[in-house]
Amino acid sequence: MKSASRMILMGLVAAGLLCSVFISARRIQNERVHRRIDIVVDYGDLRRITPVTGEGMVRALRRMSESGATAIAIYEDNFIDALDNQWIALNRMPGASVRSEQYREVRTGQITALSVLDRAPRIMGMFRRYFGEDACPESNKCFVPFKRKELEEFSLGFSPPQTDLAISLRPRHVPFDTPESIRAKMQAWDRLERKGPVIFDGIAVTGYPNGMKPLLEEIGKRPGMRVGYLELAGQQGMTAIAAKYPEQIVQTHGITDLEMLKVGRETAVRRMVRAVRERRVQVLYLRLFVRESGLPPQEALDFNADYVKSVADGVRAAGYEVGSAAPVKNIDVPWVIRAGAVSGAFALVFLLAGAVFRAPWPLAALACLLVFPGYAIAASQGMGMLVLKASALVVGCLAPGLAVSALFLYPQKHYDGPGRTMPLTENVRAFLAVSLLTAAAGFMAGSILSHRDLFARIETFAGVKLALVFPMLVVIYAWLRVCRFSLREFLESPLRYVEALAGVAILGAAAIYLMRSGNDAALAPMGGQERNVREWLEAVFVARPRTKEFLFGHPAMILLGLIPFHRRNYLFLVVLLAGVVGQASLFNTFCHIHTPLPLTLARVALGVILGTAVGAALRTAWIAALRVWRRE
Fold it and tell me: What does the alpha-carbon distance between residue 241 and residue 16 come to, in Å, rounded to a whole number?
């Protein structure tokens, strides 16, 4: 019975890998289709560095187009714009008109009415949409019942410039939007000849929270409207739009205006290209270097045009096209294929658990077979995505730790007392076998998570940090069982100084490891030296291997063979835990769904190869140092 159950589990693993290959092939095909990147330039920045109008601005826009820009992003006009352009005048007691330079000095409560001097239909139309027909009882006058600060929050519609570029609208979030004002802002998109992605401006989308229903209705009326989902911006209401209309979402990356004051042009270019290569970003939103506005206008324009051209050239060099980006389509996979990948991943976990602990093989095989009807029921109830994410998380928490325990702890069960060391060739074989098992589990987990909702960030893979910590707990538990230690006996036993220092070092490294890990860790702050190392690795290799793997976790697995295994040698456990970090990171690499799969596979392979080389070099140096020590 046990033998038959084991054969069923191995068959399910093989079937799971085949299902994963099928899903991955569809995923790679999907990634190849979506290789067109929009480059959107901020029009407000362009006006700041090139203070010209008319034909001068048309030439500046043409220069941006020639450099590789596909669209410009325009904001809604505000009160300062309207005053500067003499579209409106503000009246205050006793009735004098307020010019734009005086407006900033007006004290609260002095403004009584707004006179419309030009563009009356649009300006007055927006006020009527905000406050109703009674707000503007006269043909050229509206009464303003707000204080100065509130006036500055108004938006007065769009004024698209004359250009051959596509126009990306940036609708503003204002606290007094109405269904009528939201409709007017969306109708501005209808009047555009060439339409870029709509990228909402501010901490929330237009109409949030009370106006979300009319906003969603307006977006639904325009199936051709592409909506930019800004990475890490956390715009309130955007998840509701993405969940309702995932087929209209395009992933967008930008650098904020404050960051642009700190970064150099080369750094900004690398960051933009990296976002495309590593996170499947479809729209690059370029803020310009306005600090160069101190230069003569033509020099400032040349500097920023070269920046846009460098980004476009970098995108093309990475194998992508510059053009109108299409929203990501879903990967069509029959439910039984996804269920097969889940079942295979669980079967691998059960096989590894059986190698380390006693496993009820018949129950394990039955549980893996029940995945198929279980997933079908969950999918029919709208819980399919929850099952997929939970399955990947469970596999990630168990597979790396069980793989390490099975090949580095289970063989040691028969050795007690003084212990033994592992020859280099045996050590490398064990490490490669562990990495292969972890990669197989990660490959199946990555195929489980290959879904448009995760690509579009409608759903997120939660629990990444748990999947990085839990494998260490699995290894600690397996080590206690192998050494026949009770937890109390282990905690009360004395430590040598070298073990204590190594333990502190591992805890410190683990803390940094957790803080710097996650699916968005690529944007985490880093020091200048680390940034230089990363950029060098990117320049040298096709895919930058993860530092925690090839410089930390993988070499620790190679060094482990030099440490004698016995019941009281806690240094073995400390180095083993360091090795588990690399395996957990290897698994997690497959769960970075935003990274193209070929890049993921190259990164994992490079990490293993370099980690083996670094570990072998450190092992050789360690042996040489021990020989010198003993001679002395």
Answer: 34
What pLDDT sits at residue 149?
Answer: 56
> How many residues are present in the chain?
632
pLDDT at 521 exceeding the cut of 70 = no
Name the amino acid, one letter, at 586. Answer: L
Residue position matching structure tokens 């941006």? 64
Check the CA dihedral 378-383-385-391 and report its sign: negative
Neighbours of 105 (CB within 10 A): 9
Scanning 50-135, the segments in alpha helix (DSSP H) are 55-67, 79-84, 100-103, 120-131
- The helix or strand, by DSSP H or E, that contains position 48, with its residue range, turns out to be helix 43-49
Stretch 527-542: mean pLDDT: 65
- CA–CA dist 32, 290 (Å, integer): 36
Q: How far apart are CA 481 and CA 358, in angstroms?
A: 12
pTM above threshold 0.70: yes
Distance CA 328, CA 320 (A): 15
Q: Among 153, 160, 183, 187, which Cα is nearest to 73's?
A: 160
Residue 274 Rama label (left phi>0; alpha psi -120 to 50; beta): alpha
Q: Which of 309, 474, 444 is nearest to 368 (CA)?
A: 444
175: three-class secondary structure by DSSP = coil
Report which DSSP code applies to 477: H
Element (H, E) at 342: helix 335-356
Quote the CA–CA distance of 454 and 279 in Å, as a whole number: 12
Per-residue pLDDT for 95 more than 60? no
Write the CB contacts of 334 (distance below 8 Å, at least 6 apart in sequence).
none
Residue 245 identity (one-letter amino acid): Y
Cα(518)–Cα(65) distance, integer angstroms: 36
Q: What is the SS3 assignment for 210? A: coil
What is the C-alpha separation between 119 and 125, in angstroms, rounded?
10
Phi, then psi, of 562 in degrees rounded to 5:
-85, -15
Say if CB 186 and CB 219 are below 8 A apart: yes
Measure Cα distances from 111 to 92, 93, 131, 145 in Å.
4, 7, 17, 9
3-class DSSP state for residue 57? Answer: helix
141's enclosing H/E stretch is strand 141-143
Q: Which two tokens stand for residue 118?
A: 């030009």
DSSP at 550:
I
Residue 572's alpha-carbon distances to 317, 419, 424, 563, in angstroms, are: 46, 11, 16, 6
H-helix segments, 493-631: 497-515, 528-540, 547-548, 554-559, 570-590, 597-631
